[in-house]
Structures are given as C-alpha cells and as structure tokens.
Amino acid sequence: MSNTPKYLKETPSQTAGPYVHIGLAPGAAGFEIYREELGRDIAGPNAEGARIRVEGIVLDGTGAPVKDVLIEAWQANSKGVYAHEESAGEVEEGFRGWGRVISDFETGEWGFDTVKPGPTPGRNGTTQAPHITLWIVARGINLGLNTRLYFEDEDNGSDPVLNTIEWEHRRQTLIARREGGSYRFDIRLQGENETVFFDI
Amino acid sequence: MTPAEFYQRDRRWHPPALARDYKTSLTRSPQYAAISLENTVSEITGPRFGHGDIDPLDNDLLSNFAQPGESPIGERIIVHGRVLDENARPVPNTLVEIWQANASGRYRHKKDTYLGAIDPNFGGCGRTLTDAEGYYYFRTVKPGAYPWRNWVNDWRPAHIHLSLFGSAFAQRLITQLYFEGDPLIATCPIVNTIPDAQAIDRLTAKLDMNATIPLDTIAYRFDIVLRGRRSTLFENRLEGN
E strand or H helix at B190, and its extent? Predict the structure, then answer.
C-alpha cells in the first residue's frame, strides 16, 4: 500500500480535424440527421438586454483565413448570471449562454447573434468587465484554444483578467470593435498581433 | 460544495500546439505563451444539456441515418465506457458527441473527396448523455483507415472523434479514439503529436469480449477522464461567486 496520491490523468486532446462539422454541425457538412442541432441559439427569445451580433475571421500565421474552424461561445446573461447552478441568480427561460458557430467554407467569416453579457464576479471580490469566453478548435489545432472577447464600449480598465496580461498592447487583441451594427472580433492564431490565449 | 479551481492541465501530457510532423500545426499554433488564468465563474461554469435536447436513438449510428430495414456496411461495434474526472468520480449527465468515417474511410462531408464509397445508410455522427454513473455507449460500424495530405503516403488509423463537455467550460475536450492493435497508430503524425506513449495508450479503445453481443456486435471499451477539481479544505479564493 503506497501513500502516493492516486489521480487519474486527463484524456489527452487531439485535433478536431477538418471534418468536425459532421459531428458538431452536420448541416454544414451537407446532411440533416438530428431533430435539432445544438448551439444555434445562445440567448433565446426571452433574453433581456441589448441584442448584438459578433462577427470575425480566424487567420493563420501566413495571414490566410482559417476556413474550417469551429468556435464555441460561453457567456452570462445581461445581468451577469450564467445558466449554471454555480452562478448566483436566475437566467431567463431559454437562455443557454452557449453557442457554436463555424466559419464559412469560402471566406472564413463567422458570426453569431446574442445579447450583450453583463459584468460578472471576479476572484476575491473583484468585478469582471462584460466578456464572452471563446473556445476554438480546427484542423492543425491540437488542443482547443481559450480566449475572451471584450467590448470596446465597456469599461475594461479595471478588469482583473485583462490586467494580468503584462503587455498592455496585447490586451487590445481581446477587444471587439464596434463596426456598424455589430462587433468585429478577428482572431490571429500566430504572428503579428497574435491574439492572447489563456491557459485556464 | 463551494466552487473551487480545476486542476491545472498537464500541458506536457497533452500534445503541444506546434508539432512539426503534423504540418497544419505549423501555421496554426500560437508563438506566444498562453496567459495563465486562475479560474473564475466564467471557467467553472459551462453549458448543461438534457434529454430534451437529443433523441434516444441519436447514439445508434447503425440506424440513425439508415433507410427503414437497411443497415450500414461494416463491422458492427459497440463503443462504451465511463466518463470520470481526475478524482475518479463519475461525470453524470454530460453530453458526448462522436463523428467518424464509414467502413471505407469515407466521410459524409462535402469537402471529403476520397474515392472510398459513401454508404447510403451511414451518416457518421452520434450523441448521447452519460447516465448517473457516467456511463455512455454508442452502436456504430468500425471506421476504415483514411489517406490524407500530410506526407505523401500518410494514412490515419481507424479512429472516432469525440467531443466532451463535463460541467464546466474548463473541462471542454475534443479527442480521438483509436483501436487496439492497429499498426497505423505508430505511424500517424497526429497520434504522435502526443509525446508520452502512456498517453497514446489512453486513446486506444480495448476489445471488450464481455460486452460483445454474441452473433451480433463486437464491443470496445473506452473510458474518458476529464479535469478534476480541488476540494476546498481550508480556504476559498473564488469569493464573489
């Protein structure tokens, strides 16, 4: 009998590959199979708050669009409450806070409609500026990439997570820009103006 | 239970972002280090799914795309196992999604141009929720090997892709299942993005004769482990949640 602590090791990640759509967005792969695909409606019709659209493109290290990317979004409602038992408060009926989008096969553009999230509690009594958590998978990405989208028209100066980024100019890569009626959020996987990714 | 952090991901166990032999990773891997982020409510929460979201037969790839009375061609298999966390506790009621090629290695995807034939009775995707003990199962056909443009003569081993949620966005995981004994596993640049042979073995489903249905379907066992979570013995630094 050994006193060595017994823990299991996490199952290792592998790339989602180029045909991720078959499993997670079969309509885009070219066939209908499920009664309803998951992740198409983040906020639901009853959600309060400002309706917004978020759009962007993911670029690789050569500056070319990544046309086979899948992005999942996770966010709080307009009051800063997540649809989860460990978030204090209630969400509107049908508010899921989670969505799944894919890039266009020709252009690489992606976008989703939602409501603007409210501020959420941070650690140790701080408050986090409104943000949407993003998880990015694709061919060539061996372990899903975590990042956050913030809004340029919010007060981000005291956000505890942005302030952990030592290089102030890199914080700008996480700020979505107002562009017409929507927010623009381009993600650069590698190279100049590389988006900040988190080890969460 | 008071919310607490998930155990740090062991990034020497997972594949690194840049793995030169898997060519596409060269231009899709960040150059800068990831910023370490202590968990907040945004990471310890995640989407929940229920039986209203999916249909009971969504886990049966032998029938979920087949014409009535028809069945896909290929080796009929059951893939089953448990979803646990690093503390060996079951992860109940969590969504498991899979996708795969058919028996000839052809994906039902408009971007797949391989000359292996499409099977009119096989779609190639399934989904299910784990039960209270973390148990899940699928019925499907064993996928075929598949050529891909990496090196000139690269072939993926037979594999099934899996997507897992757990209860928190911090646990989100996509991986691939391989089959015990497949000689292509050792040659594959995607498999070998994983540095540790023990970690690779963890992605290999094992033949499970005890779960095999005689004269009907062969079974493979595949257990999955998601990140575990700290207990809050002395303090809670996630105040404000």
Answer: none
Q: A68 to chain B, minimum CA–CA distance in Å?
A: 10
Alpha-carbon span B104 to B147, nearest angstrom: 11
Most distant CA pair in chain A, distance: 66
Burial label for A154, CB within 10 Å (0-12, 13-18, 19+), is middle
Say how far apart CA A135 and CA A124 lie, in whole Å: 25
The answer to ipTM > 0.90 is: yes
Is A138 in a helix, a strand, or coil?
Answer: coil
CA distances in angstroms from B13 to A55, B65, B173, listed in the order given: 34, 37, 14
> What are the C-alpha distances in Å from A104 to residues A55, A169, B63, B236?
12, 30, 30, 44
In contact, B158 and B193? CB cutoff 8 Å: no
Secondary structure element (H or E) that encloses residue A23, with its range: helix A20-24
Q: Amino acid identity, residue A93?
A: E
Yes or no, beta carbons of B163 and A190 under 8 Å apart = no
| Closest chain B residue by Cα to residue A77 | B42
B9-23 pLDDT, tens per residue? 999 999 999 999 999
Q: Measuring CA to CA, which residue among B23, B165, B170, B167 is closest to residue B96?
A: B165
CB pair distance less than 8 Å for B194 and A12: yes
Task: Classify burial at A36, counting beta carbons within 10 Å of its beta carbon; exposed 0-12, middle 13-18, buried 19 or more.
Answer: exposed
Per-residue pLDDT of B53-111, as tens digits, reads 999 999 999 999 999 999 999 999 999 999 999 999 999 999 999 999 999 999 999 99
Q: Beta strand pairing status for A131-137 and A145-151?
A: antiparallel
Indicate whether this model's pTM tops 0.90: yes
* A13 contacts B174? CB cut-off 8 A: yes
3-state DSSP call for residue B186?
helix
Give the torsion through C-alpha atoms of A26, A29, A30, A36, to 10 deg: 20
CB B180 within 8 A of CB B154: no
Which of A7, A9, A19 should we substitute to test contact with B (largest number of B Cβ atoms within 10 Å)?
A19
Per the CB < 8 A criterion, the answer to whether A113 and A53 are in contact is: yes
